[in-house]
Amino acid sequence: MTDPEKVILKLVSESDHRIPADQIYQHFRKRGCYRRRELRAAIRRLLDSGELGYSYELGQSFLERSFNRPIQVTPRITLAPPGRAVEADHAGVTVRLAPGAAFGYGQHPTTRMALTAIDQALDMQAASDANRQNRVLDLGTGSGVLVIAAVKLGISAGLGLDIDPCALAEAQKNVDLNGLAAQIQVKNVPLDAVPDQYALITANLRLPTLIEYRDAIIKGLLPAGLLIVSGIKSAEQTKLRDQYCQMEMKVLRHWNEKGWAALLMQKMSK
Q1: What is the pLDDT along the chain (270 residues), one digit of tens a residue?
Q2: Does residue 257 share a domain with residue 154?
Q3: Can you give the residue range of the structural domain that contains 31?
Q4: Which single residue of 87, 143, 160, 233 could bond 147 by disulfide (Cβ 3.0 to 4.6 Å)?
């Protein structure tokens, strides 16, 4: 990868907003780094290789990281479209995701941080031995990526909840695509109607929803169970911590990316 390709990819990857294509040229022209011809050729190579892709909204084009190819998002989790080959030396699990409109295809930082949290949570010695024999509950499952990843990493079974018919259909399609129909259910039922307790709960949801369902979420965790929350802004972490840590929870780890945050918490054993 040439230097212009590296700096363009770094700019797009680290930006906290989508970048219009013409701003790429403006950004580097102000710094006198590269000529427009060099940048245009570098962008074309990134598009051809699948590193970048165009998105369009209201007549404007944006350059974004492309997820229409295998992407290793954590040390043990790779996301890949159907039919795309993954490198033979890949160690870990591959989650296949069919293109769709539901949230959770890896483009957003909250999805990537939640996957990182799942990877690390299930790699923790204290958690892994217990959780691998238990179940995961994914609230607001979207594409189903989180519950699928958790089961592929060793959790025995999972339940994905969502109220959006589109998300439910796409999540079920992805569950089937990954051959996990016998282990993962996808449903539209209220959280307080779920009678079971889970070793792991994932919730990529906005702060008001996480606060509204706090008691039901904590009640749904087994003693010493793990909770992964994302979907909150970095500035909202303190409020979320205050709300949950006064109710039997402690924070184990946290992540921040592009103004978003994720936390790994554990229910204290009585």
Answers
A1: 568 888 888 888 777 677 887 888 888 877 777 888 888 898 888 888 878 888 776 677 888 777 777 888 899 999 998 877 777 666 789 999 987 766 666 778 899 999 999 999 998 744 445 555 689 999 999 999 999 999 999 999 999 999 999 999 999 999 999 999 999 999 999 998 998 899 999 999 999 999 999 999 999 999 999 999 999 999 999 999 999 999 989 999 999 988 999 999 999 876
A2: yes
A3: 3-65
A4: 160
Question: What's the CATH code of the domain at 229?
Answer: 3.40.50.150
Number of compact structural domains in the chain: 2
Judge residue 23's burial from the number of C-beta atoms within 10 Å of its C-beta, 0-12 exposed, 13-18 middle, 19 or more buried. Answer: middle
Q: Are residues 178 and 57 in the same domain?
A: no
Residues 104-113 as b/e (b if ≥16 CB within 10 A, e otherwise) read: bbbbbbbbbb
Order the strands of the 184-187 sheet from edge to edge: 184-187, 157-161, 135-139, 198-204, 221-233, 260-267, 249-257
Task: Kindly report the pTM of this predicted structure.
Answer: 0.81
